[in-house]
Every structure is written in structure tokens, then in C-alpha cells.
Specification:
Largest interface: A-B, 26 and 19 residues
Largest sheet of chain B: none
Strand content of chain A: 25-35%
Structural class of chain B: mainly alpha
Helix content of chain B: over 70%
Oligomer: heterodimer
Number of strands of chain A: 12
Helix content of chain A: 25-40%
Largest sheet of chain A: 6 strands, mixed
Number of helices of chain B: 8
Number of strands of chain B: 0
Radius of gyration of chain B: 21 Å
Order of helices and strands of chain B: HHHHHHHH
Radius of gyration of chain A: 19 Å
Strand order of the largest sheet of chain A: 8-9-10-3-11-12
CATH class of chain B: Mainly Alpha
Strand content of chain B: under 5%
CATH topology of chain B: MetI-like fold
């Protein structure tokens, strides 16, 4: 097998007594789209958060393109990573949040050029051209001078996606990207993500409650519960014939409800 | 109480008005010092360096817990002992400015902590450095909500300037006291001083509300 794009190697994350990630292993191939599903409060979001370095892990190693991220090589040993090392690897990852987290005091365009200018060091004109192209792609070219508060939830989330793409990441993380949206706006956001999955080579990791969507876009579905992946598989097989009783029980509940 | 209009208008007012300039100067300079010093104090306090944070926290606590008048006397009488001689005006601005810097740093901290965690996380996800995160994302968002509190301190500082009459800064209260001592008449000078403070406070409050309005409109339009 090729070097995995992302590898979780016995990753453990605890909050006090509570173990959220329990010696978790996961390999994701370049370009693979993986959906993480599971009960609310199971900590599936934490999988994304530790990968984005929003949370520190207690044990284990996370690898990106065969390079340890929370560690770095020193001779043959792995030592705790420096800030510079983390920043270098983190630049390959972009994230879209459940609550958008746009900068409310900046315009749509301002949101999309802030990091390209000040983190990547792009000239302003180039950053603006890139941002405008991406805003056009998510269908919001005409909103460039609006403030986030002037946009609907669906539009804000599409701006957030454009903002993440402006950093030209190789890995995209979506943390329940439609959970904070009114039902009629879910579609427009899913459409953008679907398009990204179909036409680009991003490696995507997606936490979602939209089972139909997961089945449609993902190459693999991972069912997360109790700090571990209880079951993984190809979406059609997983949704029609889950192997583990827990996954079966979960699916029967959500599919009934939805 | 007897009241002499001629005395009030021809003798008291001109001298109070010359004092009022000093009062306004002290207020503005001390407020600027408080804000410009309060922000770095807050940043050091919330910073990653534990020991610096604790030391700054103690300094802020100390300043907040001792009376301003004592601090003014302290600077006025003790700075010369260590070889630093400042004019009374500068000592007064320094004392009030530093004292309110401690109070403002707490206001800044409240604003700082009110910025949602998601904003920090977005900055991490976008790989922004700490300086850019603070400068472009956190500070611009923490300021508008604390404009009312900062404006309130501006008015409070203005009303505290008479404390400087204790160290002979020629502000309005000092002018009033001198008139009283000279003519053995206090009613006109003290009453007019109070009145002038009232008028200026009201103007100041209106100004603060206007700034608040402008800032909020800019952010949440």
C-alpha cells in the first residue's frame, strides 16, 4: 500500500477520567473520502479536532504523508514536535466547522484572504484573485463585500468552505457542516461538498449525521463509538448489512427517525 | 448662604476656566495612558508565560486594592527620593493613568475572554500565527463590547482629577480652593466647580454613547 495520507497510530485522548479516543488506529489513503458516523456525544468530532491540532493527544502518533505531526524525528527517535513543525504539517489541512466560525468583523472577501496573505505570504492581488475564484465556485461571487451577519447560514458555511480552500489544503475536514443549518439550507452546502468530493483530489474526512449523504459521497464509512471505530466498510455494504450489533442498532434508529 | 453674582462671574469663572483646561488635559492623557498600558498588561496576563502572568496579575491586584490618593502621594513624595523629579502635572497623569491601566486591563480581559473559542480555532485551522490571530481577529472583536466600560472609566477619571489638588496640580478644584483661601468665600467657587463638572460629564457621556453607536454600527450592520 502507498503511504497513507493520514495515519492514526494508537491515538489516545482523555479529558480527565473520560477516554474519548481509545488507542485509535486509522489509515486514510490519498484522495479517499471517509465519513465518520456514530451516536451524539461519542467523540467523533474529536477525531477531527486532534487532527487539526485543536486538541492535544495524550498518547500515540498522528502521521501526515508519512511524517509524524505531533512528534518529529530526531535521529531515530521521535521527540515532541516544535511549533514550526506543527505549523508546517498543519498547512496541509483545512477544516470546516459546525458553527462556521467566520470572522464577523471582516467581509466575505476579507475572511478568504486573511490567512493566504498572512500565513502563506501571498500578495494581496493574488489572494484576492484566488478568493474570488473560490467564491464564484461556491456561488457567492456577488457577496464578496458582505459581512457574515448579512448572509444566511448556508451562505456562511459556503464562505467558510471557500476560506478553507483558499489555503490550498490537501486534506479537508468537515465537522458536522450542516448540523447548525436550517433544513432548507442543508442542500446547498452538501452540493458544494459533493462537488469537491467528485471533482477534486482532496483527502476528505467528514463527520456527519446525514446518513444518505455519507452513503453517497464517502468511499468508506467508519462507525465510531466508545473511543474506537467499531466497524468500517464500503458505504453500501455498511448501510445495508452492518456487521456489528451496535452499528445495526444505531442505523435502525437513525434510519427510522430520518 | 450668600451668593455674589458679580464675584462669581468676574472673579471665579475666569480662574475656574483656566483650571478646566488642565482638568481636561489630565483626563485625556491619563485615559490614553490607561488604555495604552492596560492592553499590554492584559496581554501579558493572559499570555503563555506563567511567571510573567502571575507577576502582572499581582501588580494589577495591588494597584486595584490601594486607594488612588495614596498612590498619588506615593509618587509625588517618593519618586523624588529615588532621584526622579517630575512636575506635579506629569506625576498626576502617571498616577491616575497607571491606576486606571490596572482597572482597564481587567475590562480588556473580560472582552478578551468573551471572544468565542471558535474564533481561535478558525485561526489555528487557517494556520495563522499568534501575532496575526491577536491583531487581526481577537483584538478587533474584543473592543466593541467593552467600549461602554472604557467610556465609563473616561468619565470616572474625569471626576477623579480633583484628587490632584492635593498635590497642587492647577486643575479646576485647585483653582476653586485657591479662590476660597484668597477671598474667604467658598460658595461660588465650589458650586460653580460642581456645575462645570456636571456639564462636562454630560457632554462626555454623550460622546461615549456616540462612539458606542459608531462602533456597533460598523461591526454588526
Amino acid at each position: 500500500m502507498k503511504t497513507p495520507k493520514i495515519r492514526f497510530d494508537k491515538v489516545t485522548k482523555r479529558y480527565g477520567e473520560l477516554t474519548v479516543l481509545d488507542s485509535l488506529d486509522l489509515d486514510i489513503a490519498p484522495g479517499e473520502v471517509v465519513a465518520v458516523i456514530g451516536p451524539s456525544g461519542s467523540g467523533k468530532t474529536t477525531v477531527l479536532r486532534v487532527l487539526m491540532t485543536l486538541e492535544r493527544i495524550n498518547e500515540g502518533v498522528i502521521w501526515i504523508d508519512g511524517e509524524p505531526m505531533n512528534r518529529m524525528r530526531q535521529g531515530d527517535a521521535l521527540v515532541p514536535a516544535s511549533q514550526a513543525h506543527v505549523r508546517k504539517l498543519r498547512s496541509k489541512i483545512g477544516m470546516v466547522f459546525q458553527s462556521f466560525n467566520l470572522f464577523p468583523h471582516m467581509t466575505v472577501l476579507g475572511n478568504c484572504i486573511e490567512a493566504p496573505i498572512h500565513s502563506l505570504g501571498l500578495p494581496r492581488a493574488e489572494a484576492e484573485a484566488r478568493a474570488e475564484g473560490l467564491l464564484a465556485k461556491v456561488g457567492l461571487a456577488d457577496k464578496r463585500n458582505h459581512y457574515p451577519s448579512q448572509l444566511s447560514g448556508g451562505q456562511q458555511q459556503r464562505v467558510a468552505i471557500a476560506r478553507a480552500l483558499a489555503m490550498q489544503p490537501e486534506i479537508l475536514l468537515f465537522d458536522e457542516p450542516t448540523s447548525a443549518l436550517d433544513p432548507e439550507m442543508v442542500g446547498e452546502v452538501l452540493e458544494v461538498i459533493r462537488e469537491l468530493a467528485r471533482t477534486h483530489s482532496y483527502t476528505m474526512l467528514l463527520v456527519t449525521h446525514q446518513m444518505g449523504f455519507a452513503r453517497e459521497v464517502a468511499d468508506r464509512v467508519c462507525f465510531f463509538e466508545g473511543g474506537k471505530f467499531v466497524e468500517q466498510g464500503e458505504p453500501n455494504a455498511f448501510f445495508t448489512q452492518p456487521q456489528s450489533p451496535r452499528a445495526a442498532q444505531f442505523l435502525s434508529k437513525v434510519l427510522q427517525a430520518g | 448662604m450668600n451668593w455674589d453674582w458679580t464675584f462669581a462671574i468676574h472673579t471665579v469663572m475666569p480662574r475656574l476656566l483656566s483650571g478646566i483646561i488642565t482638568t481636561i488635559e489630565v483626563t485625556i492623557l491619563a485615559f490614553l495612558l490607561a488604555v495604552l498600558l492596560g492592553l499590554p498588561l492584559m496581554l501579558l496576563r493572559v499570555g503563555k508565560n506563567r511567571s510573567i502572568s502571575v507577576i502582572v496579575g499581582e501588580i494589577v491586584e495591588f494597584l486595584r486594592s490601594t486607594p488612588l490618593l495614596v498612590q498619588i502621594f506615593f509618587l509625588f513624595y517618593l519618586l523624588p527620593e529615588v532621584g526622579i523629579t517630575l512636575p506635579p502635572f506629569a506625576t498626576g497623569v502617571l498616577a491616575i493613568g497607571v491606576y486606571y491601566a490596572a482597572l482597564c486591563s481587567e475590562v480588556f480581559r473580560a472582552g478578551f475572554e468573551a471572544v468565542p473559542r471558535g474564533q481561535w480555532e478558525a485561526c489555528t485551522a487557517l494556520n495563522l500565527g499568534r501575532y496575526r490571530t491577536m491583531r487581526d481577529v481577537i483584538i478587533p472583536q474584543m473592543l466593541p463590547p467593552i467600549v461602554p466600560s472604557l467610556g465609563n472609566y473616561l468619565i470616572v477619571i474625569f471626576k477623579e482629577t480633583p484628587l490632584l489638588s492635593f498635590v497642587a496640580v492647577a486643575e479646576m478644584m485647585q483653582a476653586a480652593k485657591l479662590i476660597g483661601a484668597e477671598f474667604y468665600r467658598f460658595s461660588e467657587a465650589i458650586t460653580l466647580t460642581g456645575l462645570l463638572f456636571l456639564i462636562l460629564s454630560l457632554i462626555c457621556a454623550a460622546l461615549v454613547r456616540w462612539v458606542e453607536f459608531i462602533v456597533n454600527r460598523r461591526i454588526y450592520r
